[in-house]
Amino acid sequence: MKKRSDMECCMLCPRSCGVNRVIGQRGRCGMDAHMRIARAALHMWEEPCISGEEGSGTVFFAGCALGCVFCQNYEIAHVSPERFRAVSVEELADIFLRLQEQKANNINLVTAGQFLPQAAEAIEMAKNHGLRIPIVYNSSGYENVEALRRLEGLVDIYLPDMKYWKPETGQAYSRAADYPEVAKKAIAEMVRQAGTAVFDERGIMQKGVIVRHLLLPGHLLEAKKIVRYLYECYENGIYISLMSQYTPLEQVGEDPLLGRRVTKREYEKLLDFAIALGVENAFYQEGDVAKESFIPPFEDAGVIL
């Protein structure tokens, strides 16, 4: 009954829209109560300690509570619920187990917050049927702490973004002026749950937190403030992933900043700043990664395995 009451007056995310998703109303995430998946497959494009050589067993959920205008997964974050396949808790648990059979290094839940109660239930069910690999919760960082607490003991690795430092930027790009404060609290809860990073003999993460920051064009100063904050709060107790792969897609329109890619010089300045600060546990990107080819293909009805 708890899962149903969540959907009857949905307060799962910081938007707290309170809609009745059970009767078909859509939350700010764009989703009703039916859990929908856009893609479930081995994924090679995460950090090396997540994907490894075998791949991360990645499940992309449809919809998103944040809805960034520049979203790299825009076609699944801003969709009608009917476009992608609805799955039950039992089916999702079976998908986890099938990904494990394919030698996935982990189960990687991408933007699952709008279906957090069902996802948590599926994790428990899969674990009861032999799921042994780590669970990764891959998130925008825009999460309710109360909701995250339901994942304690179920999620091994948290992989949140920290997108914005200034409320004005959060409002402009995600209509979420509260993003900076919400993300700070969410990341603190994630660190509390997952603790210090643990890796296996292959260098694959088994436990811990990686905070991502996607450098946006023209926002170097904001990026530096985010890196400083993360380092001063957690030092090298977490990993920071500094990403240069921003790709300007059609939906950003004529925005003078978002309409271009990040320059090599902008990204080098961010890396130099992190090194000078003392950041040791970090990931960075080499080469030209700002390509649409790095965005997974999403088909109508979803690609399942």
Give a summary of the structure in a few sentences:
The protein is α/β, with parallel strands linked by helices and 305 residues long. The protein contains ten helices and eleven strands.
* Helix and strand element order: HEHEHEHEHEHEHHEEHEHEE
Largest sheet: 11 strands, mixed
Number of E-type strands: 11
Strand content: 15-25%
The DSSP helix count reads 10
Low-confidence stretches: none
Mean pLDDT across all amino acids: 92
What sort of overall outline do the alpha carbons produce when their principal axes are compared? globular
Can you give the helix content as a percent range?
Answer: 25-40%
For the termini, the CA-CA separation is 30 Å
Global Rg: 18 Å
Structural class per helix/strand content? alpha/beta
Task: Explain what you see.
It is a single chain. The chain has 305 residues and is of the alpha/beta class. The chain is built from ten helices and eleven strands. The protein has helices at residues 2-8, 48-51, 74-77, 89-101, 116-128, 145-148, 167-174, 179-194, 220-234, 264-277, and strands at 36-43, 56-61, 85-86, 107-110, 135-139, 157-160, 198-199, 205-214, 239-243, 282-284, 303-304. Strands 1, 2, 3, 4, 5, 6, 7, 8, 9, 10 and 11 form an eleven-stranded mixed β-sheet that branches. α10 links the parallel β9 and β10 (282-284). The chain is globular. The mean pLDDT is 92.
